[in-house]
Amino acid sequence: MSTELAVIQKASSLPEVLRTVSRSVVPAAAERPVDIPKTVVLTDAAATAMTAIAEMDLVQADARRTLTTTEVEQLLAERALLDDIEKFIKDRKEAQRAMVFNHLDIEVDGSPLAAGAEVDGKGHWLVPGKLTVVGAAKCFSREIAEGSPSLSAEDLLAVVADDSGIDFTHDDYLACTTQVRVIDEAKTMLHLRRKPGIVEAIRQATVAGDPRASNYVRKA
What is the dihedral of CA 12, 17, 18, 22, to 10 degrees? Predict the structure, then answer.
């Protein structure tokens, strides 16, 4: 039995199997995307909304209670302002992420850290790093989280119909799913132990959960 099949046979859950069989992101190639930060400007609507929020007497509720008509009206007005501000904040945080990650990427380029490292879909190195300023209490921190692969009944059914030569029948599909046809983790694990060869079908149907990098502000 291969090492992979041995791991699968001992796996206690379907997510553990999917992590074993899923394909991760590929090593960085010579040609890779470049993430250019979007130019984000503070719109008049967002600026006005920020000022209005600062001047509002915000509705507060320090207990479980019903709201008055006036409070509901105030909340609706506040929500409209928050929506105006939210897009600016989201776009600006994404631009910050690109700028910070590009800085950290340049530090990784050509360094020993790049050997065997991977990049995400925007071309950023999946390598942890910090962007600090001397004397500052806070810093930007690039942190890497493992992706979560997924398996759907639709993707598994597609393996039955393709011509890849994988030994996976419609009966195998039924053995791994339940009505309405969705993946049943317990049934799939049981069927895997009965017929380990279906792991190739699961591999083909699994959507890899690629590692992802997030930009946080941490203590320096």
Answer: 150
Judge contact between 166 and 206, C-beta under 8 A.
no
Predicted model pTM: 0.63
Model confidence pLDDT, tens digit, residues 167-184: 899 999 999 998 888 889
What distance in Å separates the CA atoms of residue 151 and residue 158, rounded to the nearest whole number? 12
Residues constituting the chain: 220
Task: Please identify which residue in the block is written with the tokens 């340049």.
Answer: 106
How far apart, in whole angstroms, are the C-alpha atoms of residue 76 and residue 83? 11
As a whole number of angstroms, the longest Cα–Cα distance in the chain is: 70
CA 48, 50, 56 angle in degrees (round to 5)? 100
* pLDDT tens for each residue of 189-201: 889 888 888 888 8
Rg (CA), the chain: 25
CA distance 122 to 49: 32
Q: Residue 26: what pLDDT?
A: 47
> Sign of the C-alpha dihedral, residues 95, 96, 102, 103?
positive
Cα 169 → chain centroid: 32
Nearest Cα to 157, choosing from 171, 145, 146? 171
